[in-house]
Each structure stands twice: as C-alpha cells, then as structure tokens.
Design a protein that fits this description.
By secondary structure, the protein is an alpha/beta fold. The chain has a single domain, classed as Glutaredoxin. Helices cover 36% and strands 21% of the residues. It has 6 helices and 5 strands, in the order ααβαβαβαββα. Strands 1-3-2-4-5 form a 5-stranded mixed β-sheet, with helices on both faces. The protein starts with a helix and ends with a helix.
Length: 132
C-alpha cells in the first residue's frame, strides 16, 4: 500500500478489494415484483429492505456485505430496496408476500413463496445458504 492509498483512500476502500462484492440488483419499480416471483421458481431470491435514515439498518447492511461469501456457482439473486426512496414498493412487498414490514428486513423467496424472513440483527448470510 502506497502513501497515496493511505492519504486518499479509506481503510474500507483498501480492504474492499479483498471483500467479495454483493451482486445487488436495485428494486425500484413495483412491476419487478412479478418478475422476482417468477425468478424464485428457478433460484432463491432475496429482497433486502434498507432504510437510509436508520443507523441500525446501516449497521446490519454493512455487516451483511462484510460477511457476504456466497459461492459464485450457486444461483441466488439479491435485490436491494431503498425504503425511503421506494415506500410504495415496500408496502407492496409486505402485501403481496404477506410479510409484515420491518426495517431492515431480509425476505427469501423460493418457488414463488416466502421461505424465510428476518429483521435487524437476525439478518445473516448463513440463512441464505440454507436455501441454495
């Protein structure tokens, strides 16, 4: 690591090269929910609901991303929902999949149905592994 890296990059930026990036797909349109349900017929689908105004949500998201280590050969699709920017979509997720809204929240779909949901500190990458 050079002097330039120490001065202009944060420790997270430097370490990030070693961390597996989470392959998020943005959930920004209500029409995506039908596609998500169909995708879950072929592979597990995860919806991660995050509030950009909540420190706990930020902490849980950071922990999830830091611990993300799903094998690249396993098929799973990860959707990221910014609750503040997409409140209506969040409400539709709760209604359509019959899961009470929480934030942060992780919902796992398989074969068109919710097979797991958790919130706050119960959100864990290991739970996804149980369904892939």
């Amino acid at each position: 690591m050079g002097l330039f890296d120490k001065v202009f990059k944060s420790e997270r930026d430097i370490v990030k090269k070693e961390i597996e990036e989470v392959p998020w797909h943005a959930l920004t349109e209500e029409q995506q929910l039908e596609k998500i349900k169909q995708e879950s017929e072929k592979q597990p689908v995860v919806i991660f609901k995050h509030s950009t105004r909540c420190r706990i949500s930020r902490m849980v998201l950071n922990n999830f991303e830091r611990n993300y280590d799903l094998p690249k050969d396993k098929e799973v699709k990860l959707y990221f929902l910014n609750l503040i920017a997409n409140r209506g979509i969040s409400n539709e997720v709760a209604s359509r999949f019959r899961v009470r809204h929480e934030s942060p929240q992780m919902i796992i779909l398989k074969d068109g149905e919710v097979v797991h949901h958790s919130s706050h500190q119960a959100i864990d990458v290991e739970r996804i592994k149980e369904f892939i």
